[in-house]
């Protein structure tokens, strides 16, 4: 018995969602939910959540593409982390991104010129 195109697409969608959930579970380190877990989401709720996650990821990617300055800022942050190797990354990030004078200094034309002359 052959499945209709719509049924095939639905099966592919379900398989992709299951694979995405499996990957997310492995990456997040959270345990897979048991079949009898009464706190688990219903199939419909999980499907809605998974679709929302994909939509959000796409929106985030589009935002980052519209704001290339964020790439520069994050690259600078990662460089500082690799150079300074802070013990508490959350505290370091909070200080890094909340110090306006340091941000102005890091991204001012003078700072760019001094970096170019040091090379």
From TrEMBL:
Top-level taxon: Eukaryota
Region span, Disordered: 98-119
Xref: PANTHER family: RIIA DOMAIN-CONTAINING PROTEIN 1
Name listed for the protein in its UniProt record: RIIa domain-containing protein 1
Lineage, highest ranks first: Eukaryota, Metazoa, Porifera, Demospongiae, Heteroscleromorpha
């Amino acid at each position: 018995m052959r499945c209709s195109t719509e049924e095939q697409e639905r099966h592919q969608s379900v398989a992709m969602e299951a694979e995405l959930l499996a990957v997310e579970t492995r990456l997040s380190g959270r345990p897979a939910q048991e079949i009898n877990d009464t706190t688990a989401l219903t199939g419909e709720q999980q499907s809605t959540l998974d679709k929302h996650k994909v939509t959000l990821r796409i929106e985030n990617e589009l935002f980052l593409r519209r704001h290339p300055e964020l790439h520069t800022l994050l690259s600078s942050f990662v460089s500082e982390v690799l150079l300074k190797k802070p013990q508490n990354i959350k505290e370091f990030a909070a200080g890094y991104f909340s110090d306006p004078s340091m941000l102005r200094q890091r991204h001012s034309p003078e700072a760019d010129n001094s970096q170019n002359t040091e090379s």
